[in-house]
Each structure stands twice: as C-alpha cells, then as structure tokens.
Specification:
Residues 1-21 form the signal peptide. InterPro entries: ConA-like_dom_sf, Kinase-like_dom_sf, L-type_Lectin-RKs, Lectin_legB_Mn/Ca_BS, Legume_lectin_dom, Prot_kinase_dom, Protein_kinase_ATP_BS, Ser/Thr_kinase_AS. Helix content is 25%, strand content 24%. By secondary structure, it is an alpha+beta fold. The strands form 7 sheets. Strands 1, 3, 4, 7, 14, 15, 16 and 18 form an 8-stranded antiparallel β-sheet that branches. A hairpin with a 7-residue loop joins strand 12 (177-179) and strand 13 (187-189). Helix 9 runs antiparallel to helix 11 (526-542), helix 9 packs antiparallel against helix 14 (609-616) and helix 11 runs antiparallel to helix 13. The radius of gyration is 30 Å and the shape is globular. The structure holds 2-acetamido-2-deoxy-beta-D-glucopyranose (NAG) (9 copies).
Length: 673
C-alpha cells in the first residue's frame, strides 16, 4: 500500500491533464439546412443537398458514387503516443431501392485519409478501388450498410452491417437488426432497403479498444449493440482524418439518403430525434382521385353516373363491349378511332413488322404528338382473350428502363390493339444478322446485353409477381434512339406468385432458345429464361443465330459450335467478324463463357438471373472450369439429338406445342392433340 500511494498520486494529475488536453471536435446536422453547409461539407460525385434539408448521396441511376465529407480533417489520434481517440457518431439514413426489393449497393460511414476518394461504385461502395482494396496503407475505416451480397468480399447476405478496415471484406459483419430491450437476446430484423428511416449509433472506445454499432427504427437507442468488435483502431488511422459518408449503385440501384448526423471526438455525439429531422417525401397516395370525387355534390354525381351509363350503353350498342374486368385494367384505354387515325388507318406504309401475335404499326398520337407502336392482335376464342387481357393488366404495370413500356390498349370487335413506346431503332436482330447496314460496336452490344439482363432480373425478382418472359431473343429486343436495349413482346409471358410453383403450360417459345427440359416438364421457369439469355448472349457476341441451317462448314447449333471452340482453346474464333477484332478480350470472354454457362442443358447448372447480372457487372468471378453444356457426350451431333428429343417428347404429350421459327415469322403450330 505505501508503495502504491505515491505512484497513484503522481498519476492523478497526469490523468486529469490528459483528459483536459484531449481535443474535441463536434459535428451536428439535425437535417442539412444551415447556411454554412457548403463551407462545412464537401460533396463529390452524385451527392447533393436537397432543398428539404436531406443529404442525398446517390439517386437510383446505375453506377453512381456519392461522397459527403467534412471539409476539414479532424485530429483522430495523439501523434506522440500514437493512440487513436475515442469517438462517437449517430446518424439517420434511408435507402430507397429502384424497385421494391431490388436495389443496391449500399452506404458507408467512412473515416478516410482523403476526402477526394479515387474509388469505384458498385460493390466498392465508393470507398476503395480494385487496386487499393486490402492495402494496409489505405488508412480507411468504415461501417457499411450493404444491400447486395458480393461473393468477392465474402458478404454474408444482401442486408448486413459490417465493419470494414482497409478492405470491403468486412472484419466483422452481421445481418441488419437490433436487440429488443428487456427480453434477452431477441433480435428484430431490419430491412436496410425498406425506405424507412434507420437511426445508427457507432462508438469507438479507445480504452476498451471496442467498436460498437447499433441500429434502430426509433429514436431510442437499444442498449445492446448489434455488432461489437474488439479492435485497436490506432494502426489504421492517421493523425488527421476526414469523416463522412459514401454510397454507391451498380446495375442494381437505390437512392441513399442521410437525414441528420452528429459526430464527436472524445465524447458522446449529440442525440438526434427522428421526429425533428426532415423526412423523405412519401410516394403519392393512390386514392386521391376518389377522395376528390366524394366531395363533389351528389347532383353532379348522379349526372355523371347517368352519362356514364348512356356512354356505356352506346358503346355496347357499338359492339365495343366493355366488361368489368376490362375497366379495372391498369394501362390507359385508347379510343379505336384515335389509333386508327394515328396509324393512317393501319396502312401498309405505317407497318413496322410482324410480331408473334400480329402486325405492328407506327403511329403518332394527335394530342400528345408522341410516337407509338400499335400492335394489332387477332384473337379467336373468348377464353384466350380473357387470359390475354388479364396478363396485360399485370404486365401494363411493369416499369423498367429495359422493358418496352405498354402504354395502353383498345379492344373493338375482333381487334385487340396494344400501344407501346415507339423504339426508333427497331429490333436488335436487324443489326446482328444478315447484312446489317450499321454494325453495332462491342461497347453498344455489351450495353444492350447488360440492359436486357437487368430487365430480366426485374421480371424475375423485382415485381410483385414472378414474370417469366418465355421468348427472350434478339428479335424481341428493341433499340431506342440511343441504342439502349429494351425487352419487348410479352405476348407469351407468364406470371406466378413468388414462392409458388409454376404450373404446366403449353410449350411455347422459339426453337434454339428453348431450354431442353421444357418439352419434358412443360413448366416455363425463370431458369428457362436464363437458358434463352445464354443463347442471346452468344448470338450478340457471335453475330449468328442460335440455329443456322445454311452454314455448311460450321456446326449448325451455335451453342455447340462455341463449346467446341472453347474446348479447343480457340474461343475468340467465334466472335462476330464484323467487330473487326475491336473489343476488350476480358469482356468478350465473360459474355461467351456466361452464354455457355446459362445455356447449359441442366437447369441446376445454370445461374439464376441475379447471379448472371452479378457476373456481368464484374461483382463475381465466373467459375474457372465450365461444365459441358450438353448432358450427353458427343459434340457435333448435338442438334440432332436435341431436336429428336424435342420432337419425340412433343408427340408423347397430350398438350399442344407451338413455336415461332427463328426469323420470328409467325407462330407455327407443330402439333395440337
Ligand atoms: C498524447 O500522449 C502524450 C503521451 O502519452 C501525452 O503527454 C499528451 O498529453 C497526449 N496528447 C493528447 C492531445 O492527448
Ligand atoms: C461549420 O463550421 C463552423 C466553423 O468551422 C462551425 O462553427 C460550425 O459549428 C459548423 N457547423 C456545423 C453544422 O457543424
Ligand atoms: C455562417 O455563415 C454566415 C454568413 O455566410 C457567417 O456570417 C457566419 O459567421 C457563419 N457561421 C459560422 C459558424 O461559420
Ligand atoms: C442522378 O444523378 C446523376 C449524377 O448526379 C445525374 O447525372 C442524373 O441526372 C440523376 N438522375 C436523376 C433521374 O435524377
Ligand atoms: C485507387 O485508390 C488509390 C488511393 O486513393 C489511388 O492512388 C489510385 O489512383 C486509385 N486507382 C485507380 C485505378 O483509381
Ligand atoms: C499499397 O499501397 C502503397 C501506396 O499506395 C503501394 O506503394 C504498395 O505497393 C501497395 N501494396 C500492395 C500490396 O499493393
Ligand atoms: C476475404 O476474407 C476471406 C476469409 O476471411 C478470405 O478467404 C479472402 O481471401 C478475403 N478476400 C479479400 C479480397 O481480401
Ligand atoms: C432474420 O434474418 C435472419 C438472417 O437473414 C433469418 O435467418 C431469420 O429467419 C430472420 N428472422 C425473422 C424473424 O425474419
Ligand atoms: C459496447 O457494447 C458493449 C456491450 O456489447 C458495452 O458493454 C459497452 O459499454 C459498449 N461500449 C460503448 C462505447 O458503447
């Protein structure tokens, strides 16, 4: 005891002087509205401060990165003893995905050596790039809120919180959530990309050498952190560091927002109250029209009702029958005469081409002057029409930049007219095959491929139902005026509830793009779309149709030909000669190999659309070794065997089969039993 006392006595003033001389720095943004913001925050990339006081790091455009850092660096450690200081931060964030459940990539609270990061978007979250990831001289500490699972960085899932030190391979990570207070270790999951405001607390204790991360959907901080990592941050921080946020998007995109932020070195960050922060504008309510209607006087209502009745009666008399289910249909209903006028009375001059179900005309609507494509479908049975209409009702609500938008429809007597966005450059096959006037370069082709893949991912995962397109091929990909690829012709699409099993249907599609299991199972699945995507990738890269009957010297089945060249180590032999060898070899290799993997005979060997998109976006490496795409041996006799198995199973079954020939000329029925 007597020995210790003097020691303690000398320590006390030391402790006091240490704590009193420790620098503190504070940041407090309860919303981002103060007039001094521009001097305090440096915004780069897509980051901007909105008029409503919300810091928006990215919008939902692809491949963006946005940064917001305090303009001046803060002293993060003691230069003489090299120890990092404690710090604490709390902020409110919201991630709004482009499509429900389909967004990316994520947001990170970031402490970095520079506020001008030379980083990449996508899985790099705007904080690191491919050359400096994992380098100990990066001096980068971040807490990531990641909504995409990247295998390259060993992500645990697509909704996690992770502590990143000089790498995106998180040192520690856990599914996003919080522990409910007072009930032991009961965890409540939190969906990061729900669009809801999430409050985050991050603390570093320099004595305990502990980083805690806590999240919550309310202003009250749960007492247990979701993530607690024992780590001394001193070696990873320089004396002066910049602090702020980074977010990025890839093929999958979300808007990333920070609604308020507070930060403090050597102390507890000032608390934020969710109710006093700016809030994201809610999407407009759907029933406003109805509310307005109710407030209108009843006299007007009766008159309106009467005139509607008269109108409907006149319509019925005109044999332009409106049925209940037609009135509920989403997209706009067009007037027959308007469409007739728009297309010059469906004149041959306005004819754009023949689709699977009928003729397509170019039209110009009088009032809006917009150009449209009008498809005239002829239908036979009432049942078929009803089915078709109910599909239009759902498909009309699909919205994606890589899908041809259905604007509306019209039905009159034997005619069913569908009105679509007009695609100035027509269908892709014209640019690929035969003798195209304009040869698409590789960059344009790759852009089209990525677009179609992202449109398909939306159909499979991004909509309230699973949509299987069933007829993915170059002639169903249309190009807008900027040569962006848009998937069209939903005439064969099937919708299923998520989690349900697709039922058996007629086998339809186009020979050469039809997955071999289809005739056997009769079930169109997302995996059979992936098969068709594989054939599509190969045709775009090779400039050749999947089945070419009049190539004498070569293998007639494209997949078999590519596989053959691949096994001979001469894969680049298959590349479209019209590209004049002007392409990036790694990109070409990716597309060709992915084409082979997707069009594997065995559905289990194919990736799903999300994986395919990930490969295309460079987020995951393709497997080194490819499985043979044919189940049976013997390359070369491939097509015969395929066709035989196709034909025999066709005749074995009692349902009817039909397909379009590969030039897209009409749907030929092989057999109807
Ligand atoms: C840094 O550490 C040295 C040695 O431990 C100490 O004397 C000094 O007061 C510390 N400075 C700060 C700012 O904490
Ligand atoms: C902005 O910077 C000034 C001067 O550096 C500081 O006084 C002020 O508190 C800062 N504002 C915020 C919101 O952090
Ligand atoms: C904020 O900006 C105003 C005007 O630009 C200036 O007068 C004031 O000193 C600034 N305040 C701080 C804390 O920097
Ligand atoms: C999204 O942000 C980018 C970069 O700031 C900008 O170029 C683009 O116009 C924005 N898109 C939308 C739809 O606001
Ligand atoms: C990667 O980041 C480092 C450090 O910020 C930078 O020096 C380098 O130029 C970047 N590399 C690329 C390819 O952007
Ligand atoms: C890490 O980065 C430093 C500085 O940027 C560089 O000199 C060094 O070669 C890099 N180390 C590795 C392993 O890439
Ligand atoms: C990421 O971590 C895993 C396991 O911790 C390791 O196998 C892998 O090599 C790491 N990858 C990178 C890029 O650091
Ligand atoms: C919470 O998330 C985990 C991991 O994603 C999952 O295994 C678990 O079933 C989820 N729990 C609830 C109640 O949804
Ligand atoms: C971090 O969390 C642990 C519990 O896991 C707690 O004991 C500790 O006090 C927390 N530290 C800070 C700085 O909040």
């Amino acid at each position: 005891m007597p020995y210790f006392l003097p020691v303690l006595l000398t320590l006390i003033p030391l402790l006091i002087s240490t704590s009193s001389s420790q620098p503190t720095a504070t940041v407090f943004f309860p919303g981002f509205k103060s007039p001094n913001l521009s001097t305090n925050l440096t915004l780069t990339g897509s980051a901007e401060i909105q008029a409503n006081g919300i810091l928006k790091l990215t919008n939902d455009t692809g491949r963006l990165q946005g940064h917001a850092f305090c303009s001046s660096p803060f002293r993060f450690k003691n230069s003489s003893n090299g120890q990092a200081f404690s710090f604490s931060t709390t902020f409110a964030m919201a991630i709004v995905p482009e499509y429900p459940k389909l967004g990316g990539h994520g947001l990170a609270f970031t402490i970095a050596a520079s506020k001008d990061l030379k980083a990449l978007p996508r899985q790099y979250l705007g904080i690191l790039n491919a050359t400096n990831v994992g380098n100990s001289s990066d001096y980068l500490v971040a807490v990531e809120f990641d909504t995409v699972q990247d295998f390259e960085f060993q992500d645990i899932n697509d909704n996690h919180v992770g502590i990143d030190i000089n790498s995106l391979n998180s040192t520690a990570s856990l599914p996003a959530g919080y522990y409910i207070d007072g009930v032991g270790l009961v965890k409540q999951n939190v969906s990061l990309q729900s669009g809801e405001t999430i409050l985050v607390w991050i603390e570093y204790d320099s004595v305990e050498k502990l980083v805690n991360v806590t999240i919550s959907l309310s202003s009250k901080k749960p007492s247990l952190p979701i993530l607690s990592l024992k780590v001394d941050l001193s070696p990873f921080l320089q004396e002066f560091m910049y602090v702020g946020f980074s977010a990025s998007t890839g093929l999958l995109a979300s808007s990333h927002y920070i609604l308020g932020w507070s930060f403090k070195i050597n102390g507890e960050a000032q608390a934020l109250d969710l109710s006093s922060l700016p809030s994201l504008p809610r999407p407009p309510e759907k029933h406003t029209a109805l509310t307005v209607g109710v407030s209108v006087s009843s006299v007007v209502l009766v008159i309106t009702a009467l005139s509607v009745a008269v109108y409907i009666f006149m319509k019925i008399k005109n044999a332009d029958v409106i049925e209940d289910w037609e009135l509920e249909i989403g997209p706009q209903r067009y007037d027959y005469h308007e469409l007739k006028r728009a297309t010059n009375g469906f004149s041959d001059k306005a004819l754009l081409g023949h689709g699977g179900f009928g003729k397509v005309y170019k039209g110009k609507l009088k009032d809006s002057k917009t150009q449209v494509a009008v498809k005239r479908v002829s239908h036979e049975s009432k049942q078929g029409l009803r089915e078709f209409m109910s599909e239009i009702a759902s498909i009309g609500r699909l919205r994606h930049r890589n899908l041809v938008q259905l604007l509306g429809w019209c039905r009159r007597r034997g005619d069913l007219l569908l009105v679509y966005d007009y695609m100035a450059n027509g269908s892709l096959d014209k640019f690929l095959f035969d003798d195209p006037k304009i040869v698409l370069n590789w960059e344009q082709r790759l852009n089209i491929i990525k677009g179609v893949a992202s449109g398909l991912l939306y159909l499979h995962e991004g909509y309230e139902q699973i949509v299987v397109h069933r007829d993915v091929k170059a002639s169903n990909v249309l190009l807008d005026d900027e040569l962006n690829g848009k998937l069209g012709d939903f005439g064969l699409a099937k919708l299923y509830e998520h989690g349900s099993n697709p039922g058996t249907t007629r086998v339809v599609g186009t020979l050469g793009y039809l997955a071999p299991e289809l005739p056997k199972t009769g079930k169109a699945t997302t995996s059979s779309d992936v098969y068709a995507l594989g054939a599509f990738l190969l045709e775009v890269a090779c400039g050749r149709r999947p089945i070419e009957s009049n190539v004498s010297q070569e293998e007639p089945v494209l997949i078999d030909w590519v596989w053959e060249k691949f096994t001979q180590g001469r894969l680049f032999d298959v590349v479209d000669i019209r590209l004049n060898d002007k392409y990036k070899e790694d990109e070409m290799l990716l597309v060709l190999k992915l084409g082979l993997i997707c069009s594997n005979d065995a559905p289990m060997a194919r990736p799903n659309m999300r994986q395919a998109v990930r490969y295309l976006d460079g987020e995951a490496e393709l497997p080194e070794v490819l499985k043979p795409s044919r189940i049976y041996e013997g390359v070369g006799e491939g097509f015969d065997t395929f066709l035989h198995s196709f034909m025999s199973s066709t005749f074995d079954n009692t349902s009817s089969y039909s397909f379009t020939d590969q030039n897209g000329n009409g749907r030929t029925s092989i057999v109807s039993l």
